Amino acid sequence: MMRLQRRTVAACSSALALALGATACGGGDVAPAGSGGKNLDGSKVAVAGVWSGTEQKNFRKVLDAFSEKTGAKVEFISTGDNVSTVIGSKIEGGNAPDVVMVPQVGVLKQFAQKGWLQPLGKKTEQTVTDNFAPVWKNYGTVDGTFYGLYFKAAHKSTVWYSPDALDQAGVKPPKTYAELLKSSATVADSGLPAFAVAGEDGWTLTDWFENIYLSQAGPEKYDALAAHKLPWTDPSVVRALTTLGELFAGKDLLAGGRPGALSTDFPSSVGQVFGDDPEAAMVFEGDFVGSIAKEEYGRKIGEDATFFPFPAVDGGKAPVVSGGDAAVVLKDGRNRKAAMALMDFLATPEAAEVWAAEGGFLSPNKKTDPSAYGDDTAREIAESLVEAGDTVRFDMSDQAPAAFGGTKGMGEWKILQDFLRDPADPKDTAAALEAAAAKAFKKN
């Protein structure tokens, strides 16, 4: 996915030179600043991940900073979206990378259960304990063992909008979901559909559901449903679907109506709001919407493209749903020492600040300097993520087996697309979700 904007790293580069290997940040094998030593000279580290384009380029800058400090050479291998299959093939072929950037909690658990992962070192673990909210360590832990360092996060509780469109309709960003529905109707009455919905990409529909469910049902039920300890036929699920259905069924609320939404992919949904000929006033998705609005449509973030937090539902707290990429070390990698040193480095705020300065990145590390972010909007979103602390919940579909939560044309993605097509029967949709979840979790 495309991400946020770039800028020159003027402020943080000098600090970076002084502090990349500071032992207070969990430097581990990374040489301390000023030592002049590159204790990993000659080492090679292979890092695999899904990133391509701008994301890969910006992560490469983080890896280059590590290389500059330690002398280790780092190769990046792009896996494409099917990380599990690619990494499995490389392990079987005796060509496993040392480190993998894993984009889903479910995949991290799968790797751990297959015995592919090496527990992370004590210094990395201590840094995470000290500088991250406990929820991030929990999501990187499987059966009591810490395997995954969440280096990059996403904030998936942001509603992006055109200020001009809301101004013309005479509405302000809502604080509650009820206000959102009311404002959406007012926008539609002004002649512009309220929302662009990327129904062709089923993952966006899971994010709609998750934000409503987390706020309406609360974090305990969210956790239980994510682990399938609560059935999808539970009344709380039916209630959340009913709430979502009010938006989907609203008159003139969706660009192109429900059929149009079902044929709209995610990048196009952003264009429907921020393109030259707007078709909607708002689009819900993560912080990365800003990147597309800026890079593809020339919008100035914070002025003609901005956001408000996903509003609280039925008296609950405003949700903060996140996603993220966890760094893990493979047992079959060839250079464990250098891999663990890279982990120590990625746990530091200095590593996060390299990418934060470039845009399209959020760090869950509380010690990351907010001034490293390239603009006020990115800074506000990053601070919101950190301030949410342990109330953050990881994308529910990313925690599920892929057959249920992460496969096009199957499971939750397909069932919620069917619900968008016809939101008249939330109970029937809940039953379909439960049947699919039960099957997928049984096989997992």
The figure for the number of domains is 2
Rg, rounded, reads 22 Å
Beta-strand percentage? 5-15%
Q: Into which percent range does the helicity of residues fall?
A: 40-55%
CATH topology of the largest domain: D-Maltodextrin-Binding Protein, domain 2
Number of strands: 13
CATH C-level category of the largest domain: Alpha Beta
Low-confidence stretches: 1-36
Q: In the CATH classification, which architecture of the largest domain applies? A: 3-Layer(aba) Sandwich
Average pLDDT score: 91
Distance between the termini: 27 Å
Query: Any idea what the CATH superfamily of the largest domain is called?
Result: Periplasmic binding protein-like II
Short description:
The protein has 444 residues and is an alpha/beta fold.
Structural commentary:
This protein is an alpha/beta fold and 444 residues long. The chain has two domains: 10-155 and 322-393, Periplasmic binding protein-like II (D-Maltodextrin-Binding Protein, domain 2, 3-Layer(aba) Sandwich), CATH 3.40.190; 158-319 and 400-443, Periplasmic binding protein-like II (D-Maltodextrin-Binding Protein, domain 2), CATH 3.40.190.10. The protein contains 21 helices and 13 strands. The chain has helices at residues 10-19, 53-70, 83-92, 105-113, 122-131, 134-139, 163-169, 177-189, 202-217, 219-226, 235-249, 257-262, 266-274, 289-295, 336-346, 349-356, 376-387, 396-399, 402-405, 411-421, 426-443, and strands spanning 44-49, 73-78, 99-102, 117-118, 141-142, 145-146, 149-155, 158-161, 195-196, 282-285, 306-309, 321-330, 393-394. The strands form three sheets. Strands 1, 2, 3, 4, 7, 12 and 13 form a seven-stranded mixed beta sheet that branches. Helix 2 links the parallel strand 1 (44-49) and strand 2 (73-78). Helix 7 crosses helix 8. The longest helix has 18 residues, at 53-70. The model is unreliable at 1-36 (pLDDT under 50).
